Amino acid sequence: MGELPSRSDADAREDDAMEDIAPAIAISTNSLACDFSPPLISSLIQNDTTQRSSQLADFDLQPPDVVSIAIHPPKIRTTGFLVSSSGDSLLAKREPTVAAEGTQSRLQDAKQKSRRATGRISPPQDFIKLEDRLLCVLEPPVETWMRRSEFAFAQQPFPHQWDGVAFLFPRRQAILADEMGLGKTMQAITAIRLLLLTGKLRRVLLICPKPLVTNWQREFAHWAAEIPVAVVEGSAHRRAWRWNAELPVKIANYELLHRDSASLSGAREPFDLVVLDEAQRIKNRRSSISKLVRDIPRRRSWALTGTPVENSPSDLVGIFEFLSPGYLHEEMQLSRLGSLASDHVLRRTKSGVQINLPPRLFRDLELPLSPEQDETYHKAEEDGTLRLTEMGDEITIQHVFELVIRLKQICNFDPATGASCKLERLQADLEEIAGSGQKAIIFSQWVETLQRLSRELQAFNPLEYHGRIPTKRRDDILNQFREDPKCHVLLMSYGAGGVGLNLQFAQYVFLFDRWWNPAVEDQAINRAHRIGAKSPVTVGRFLTLGTIEERIDEILRQKRDMFDAVLSHTRGCEDLALSREEIMGLFAIKPNKRRDAA
Amino acid sequence: MFVPEKAAKTKPSTAEAARKSAPPQDVLLGFLTVIGNTQSGLYGGYLLINSAARPVEFHCSAPVQANRAQQILYGPTLEPYLFGELIAATLISSAKNRAALICTDCAAVLIARKGISTPMVLVATERDAASNEVHGEAQPASHQLVLTDFDVAEKKLAAWREFAADVPHARSYLEKLGSSFDLVEPFERIRLAIQEAQRGAA
């Protein structure tokens, strides 16, 4: 027991109030005790026995006074409530059903016993009622809850994933912004599973980019096989039937929303939850897709993205327009914005969570241009710069971009001769990779470059995955890359392959040319470097020396670390992508303010 | 477009399947603890959970303070009186559901066992056990703790000698729940809930 409280005025008042009602324990005192003052004591000591005998003679005449002190029990008042039945009370009659893997499983179980369960649910700040807040803290940690349920898990989730589920579970507006590869999909599915189990959800709509629809289907089958899922696709008639299907989870793609917006916004009953995967798609709140998702009637809104701030803090404001319209404004100070967002955003990085992910090794492949490329490049740069200078006031950002793209393409291949310093180096590296039976993913921003590489790298049985590959064929391509030991190379565009795919069986990633934004490059790299990766992932970043690539890289390097600034509130944040001034500065040209403003 | 949150009208198939497979009534486990605070008094919390470790019922007491007269006159019996007879007994009697077993992590709460028929055990730490060895002989024989090892987070189960039969009862009940059942974690929930209630009252 802790230290007992000291007596206070409140105690005294309480004593007074309670004396009338409480039973008293009487304590007797005699008259001597009442008069135990020092003079009397000293006189007693000094007096002889005769005096005492005379006092004894008087004693019978003095009946003792009685002072009663009530020993009141302290007042006690209790408050309490019954938790409404959640339907799962007796699911927990057996031990966890995590897929057993012999000794490995037993070792894991022993480890589980020795560490405390993770995934404690904390009440969100917008829970005002005490009862709502108490209901959150009184729930067991999600890990305990699920381990004691009879629902199986294909793999034992990581502690950070339990925490992610606990974060999503009580929230009506949430952004799960974990770094790519930490398992956002699994966390969202498990949170949905729990909410369905507890009866808090009945109708869920999940919206993702079209190429990821089958991935989500697979993940639902993997992590929550008991939940029926309907994919909304096909003809108008088929889609209408799917929209009306009484299934708990529907998966639709962003592109589809344009066609089915009327049936979505006019739905008779709102969705209990709408989840946006790759939610950076709605960062521009003025875009039609952003407006469409905002119009979907719903009770809960979750957004999943590894890059909540791709270009600037306004990206986060755009996503919040879906979660809670008007909650954040672009004009807000960064610290205020971060503070308001913090209760709704959960972001973890691979370096910050306790997972034994193999390392990610970066190799900057800095190469001089081949003589043919060098000649073409410098001629194009001189001509282009001269032309831009001659344009005077007519120059726009568009004109500069065209020159940048032209020069970047020459850095890949000399248009006249096909010479490529990057290709020579890539071929040498791939010889070694294929020789050891490993696999590599090569990213480029241009389909033409990928097609050219495909022709040049036939010895490694390359597969292509980009915007010109029909969606129906894409899953087969990924399966072939995964399973065919002869296929060592996958050629991907940043656009088609940058997000949502699980390619953790590839040990090498090459960025044949560089994207404008480091966040997009990270997305691409993390297709291979994610949970499930069993060996280190080596990332080769091609860079031709003394070219536009080097200048862009220099600027992007300075900005790469700013990515987390909004979420960590540690420092200021500027635009992460190249600004007008920076693009113009690539050629030492001053921007034309009048034209840019227009 | 936002719509206010409300309970779904019909349960989803997952929940339906869960309920259909569930036996009609679960056996409940009670967790009772008292936390002391010199500033605002003593708070008690009583949590009933089901075998899935989920909450079924919760009660907490408003702060209790002994005044100076009570501290002097109750002397060493004040702590068991406040923890057990007053707070614990009141909380247990407030519950609508009856627990099959009550666990506590405060030895002083065990006195409440005298007034109830429900078995009650102390989830004891090594320190509790050592303390019992040192001070146990000063207690009346009936109040001495009977300790037994229990393989959960290196804890021991204990009961008063007078109710020594509660320990094997608890042991057999808890063993049915499986080794993954954490006997310590629910106390943490109670503490968090009391803190939350204190914040709410502030």
Gist of the model:
The complex is a heterodimer of chains A (598) and B (202). By secondary structure, chain A is of the alpha/beta class.
Give the helix level of chain B as a range of percent: 25-40%
Radius of gyration of chain A: 36 Å
User: From N to C, what is the helix and strand string of chain B?
Assistant: HEEEHHEEHEEHH
Domains counted in the coordinates of chain B: how many? 1
Structural class of chain B: alpha/beta
Overall pLDDT confidence of chain A: 78
How is the secondary structure organized here?
The complex is a heterodimer of chains A (598) and B (202).
Chain A: H1 9-18, E1 25-28, H2 31-34, H3 38-46, H4 49-59, E2 66-69, E3 78-82, H5 103-114, H6 130-138, H7 142-147, H8 159-168, E4 173-176, H9 184-197, E5 204-208, H10 213-223, E6 229-231, H11 236-244, E7 249-253, H12 254-265, E8 271-277, H13 288-294, E9 298-304, H14 314-323, H15 334-341, E10 345-346, E11 360-367, H16 371-391, H17 397-412, H18 421-435, E12 440-444, H19 447-456, E13 463-465, H20 471-483, E14 489-493, H21 494-497, E15 508-511, H22 518-525, E16 537-544, H23 548-560, H24 565-568, H25 580-585, H26 593-597
Parallel strand pairs in A: 4-9, 4-10, 5-7, 5-8, 6-7, 8-9, 11-16, 12-14, 12-15, 13-14, 15-16
Antiparallel strand pairs in A: 1-2
Chain B: H1 13-20, E1 29-37, E2 41-49, E3 55-61, H2 68-74, H3 78-94, E4 101-104, E5 120-124, H4 126-135, E6 145-150, E7 155-160, H5 166-177, H6 185-201
Parallel strand pairs in B: 1-4, 4-5
Antiparallel strand pairs in B: 1-2, 2-3, 5-7, 6-7
